[in-house]
Queue: 3 jobs
Job 1
Amino acid sequence: MREIVVLSGKGGTGKTSFSAALANLAEGKVLADADVDAANLHLVLRPRVSEAYPFYGLPVAYIDRDRCGQCGQCAEFCRFQAIADFSVRQEKCEGCGVCAHICPGGAIERRPRQVGEVYISTTVAGPMVHAALVAGAENSGKLVAEVRRRARAMARAENLSLIITDGPPGIGCPVLSCLPDCDLAVLVAEPSAAGVHDLQRLLQVLQHFRVPAAVVINKWDIAVQRTREIEQLCAGRQVPLLGRIPFDSTVFRCLQQGQCYLNVPAAPASRATRQVWQALQQLL
């Protein structure tokens, strides 16, 4: 079993549309949307949910009013201002447990709180694991790990050899949750000053964790000089360059219709993506 994780230095580089294209090109795979803070792969692949599982974040405080002596010490010592009128505002509770420790009546305990759901779905491109967080909920790194765990379990159960994961943008905790046991990180880069900078940071992270990387330049022809900078960056770090995808309005028209741009085979972006897929298969 092999896993490709598609990443980008920031959002808006075309990472998800590229992931959807790979999903349509590869055979024998499981799809995973690990961009749980802003999941949108489902907009293109239109999954039909067959199973849903609750996802619990870190425990938060709960006050048993029957045992509460209303001394107010819990609110006094809570540095997150999560307790008011002898009840806990769960959206503010960090689950540190100070209130439970300080409560003289033992009226406070920590309980798990559901902050999202994980879904098992079917799509026209294959089975898919994805998730949704409650608005404002955190622990997205833990949810990323859960999505990947279920995707691997599904691949083993159905004897599928490849997992394609649409990862989060940036270099934060959710990205780090995508890296353990990842076989190859495919980085979608855009030719801009910010794009070059973000790609450098992401490559440093991958190098630190010794994760193999390869790069795709999206909309390469909108800034040719920046594209050359990315190519030089890849050459200097000995990172394989899988190819360049040109700016193509077909991509946006298809996204507006909730379709993958590969449905227009003659489109320049479609032809370039198929070439990228051929190069990518050489690294798997």
Job 2
Amino acid sequence: MNSTIHDHAALAGKFNENEPRVNWHDETLWWVRKKRDRMAWSVSGWEQLREAASQIKRHVLGNLHDYLTQFEQQAIQNGATVHWAADAAEHNKIVLDILQRHNVKRMVKSKSMLTEECHLNPHLEAHGIEVIDTDLGERIVQLAKEPPSHIVLPCIHKKKEEIGELFHEHLGTPAGNADPQFLTAAARQHLRKEFLEADAAITGVNFAVAATGEMVVCTNEGNADMGAHLAKVHIACMGIEKIIPQRAHLGVFLRLLARSATGQPITTYSSHFRQPRAGQELHIVLVDNGRSRQLGREDFRNSLKCIRCGACMNTCPVYRRSGGHSYHTAVAGPIGSILAPNLDMKDYADLPFASTLCGSCSNVCPVKIDIHQQLYKWRQVIVKEGYATTGKKMGMQMMTTVLSSPKTFKTAGKMGRWVLRAFPGMVNNRMNPWYKQRNMPEAPKVSFAEWYAKNNNNEQQG
């Protein structure tokens, strides 16, 4: 493993160098989490909704082949062209071929984490096609030449003053103006021109309805509609897990999605795309890219239920204080940490360890994914398969030896307490990562077992 690039702790360390930013990032996301809680409590039967969503997804994953086939047949009947991509490279080739066939040089794209996962933008730009991200947050990080740091709030790591500087440099707004309303108006004017001049539009897909062959895209800015309705070519890219059986099931997921993501009752636009306009081509690219492999891993199959709301990120104490870029994958946070090792167990071996295993992510997940339990299982798989770092393997082996023997555990405890009392400098030094930002606790004179044995005997005697 390349520890310089692919080490969550090291990348989190860079984010933590600016403590005021970390505190602001932490507080902002916790504020979003609290909004989510208020919305959830306001809906009677919230837990029943979560259970229904979980069961619908479970049913779909158990019958995925049938629903995908049904969706393909309906979409073709609607006039769409359906493509299948086994992996990211095939997805990118399909999209590029469509664009080159129409001599497209400039295109607009609504937010799509799948295209981020497939690294579509750099692939198209390498072939001379300019991609304009039209989601405001995505456009901001694109101007900054950065990847999104959050799947719902892509530029949550940036302050408004930094965005003002970016807009001054790239859009010509007055220097020093960081008024959000002014900057939003400037972005609207800038993107309107891009929508009108684009030759093609790419959108993501939130939900695909098998029974009707239609797709639903949720945005707060209407940018997916603007792109798809103005361009002559509309390409919709979706992971194969986005299928739901019936249109009626949308009522369950649309009630959960925005409330879990940002604490809104519903996204401003829930746009349905079923067939191309007259004179327009509609292409749907169904992408596997490791999802079938994840489907076959029983312990990790539930991760495919994810509806990409980001609630697990907003509540995660590690994500909030380490930033999305520390996860070095398209989907960051707890859910990304159980999805990424499926794509490449070696490159993402560090991510399942970037968690306290507190379970808060599982508690807020709208489709009841057992995220923290999967994180724990991935740790076991990664160590077993030999992808953990040498230091981590040695540490875990040592803990296995100590914790598997009561006698060894008792002896090690006594030695540890004695060292802490007699030679605190052996532990309280810069070589100890725990000590860098904390004070080591004062060592107790006796262990809990010794204290309990003594006091329990006293109580019985009394």
Job 3
Amino acid sequence: MAPGKHRTLGLTPEDLLDMYAKMVLTRVLDQRVWALNRQGKVAIVGSCTGHEGAQVGAIWAMDRTRDLFFTFYRDLCALLTLGITPKEMLLGYMAKAGEPMSGARMFPGHGVYPKYRVINLSNVVGAQMTKAVGAALAAKIRKDPTVVFVSFGDGATSQGEWHEALNFAGVHRLPILFFCQNNRWAISVPQHKQMAIPDVAIRAQGYGFPGVVVDGTDPLEVLKVTREAAQRARSGGGPTLIEAKVERLMPHTSDDDDRRYRPKDDLEKAKARDPIERFRTYLQSEGILTESQDKAIWTRAQAEVDEATEVADKAPYPDPSTLLDHMWATPPGRQGV
């Protein structure tokens, strides 16, 4: 990261420490969820590790009071940056009552959370794309200044629904940002077997709007390009496809064993681009983060996750009688099913 980069973006030291703290909190929570999975308390984990820099930078660039967010299953840092708490996330991971997005009836981190303008319906790959485009069309028709942010992995770009969404958004010049977190792996399929191009962003040309490639391990650069794209969308300039090059530092999910298909040296190279390490080095070189501050941030994250784990572990499972709540409207004069 270039020296003094944050000053050109108008970010204060407090902003940077808040961003770093979100990344650390995400890493600690992610590691806890993996441990709980191995204890049989969490059914499945889709790790965010390696994606934190891209997510915190992108969300920081958006207007969190009026934009809409269609996230995907690897967006833990994005959700925490929007304001969702570790306790709420752990209630979801452990399928406990009180989970606010789906009543703990969906894949962890999925559902809808209007308070934080999160609309994330399922973990079917690419399924959020056309819904996000519909929301952007609605915003345009209403002359609402909302910009829609939809994120996905590189594997989603092989889905037909993905192409339909981008084509429609380009034709109608919709206020939407397509945010690809390209970690070069679609489960066990490497990028060169997914597409015959080096960058996903190239595809934007076919739909008539800009495509931008950015280093996803650099939160400040991600913030910069996302901010520019959001301003363009809000002023009527239409969509942008942002491709953040990130690293997947864990297997695809807790059900996966990536040692069967991923070369060991590929993972070692990825670890050298750990976004938390890179951001910490930048903050220390700028005199913004001291060793004692860094230790305090990790200690505070650990304590918050410990407390959230204890609460979620003791929470009851949802009442089975509520299984079908919210699935159908209840006709007047009748009791719900």
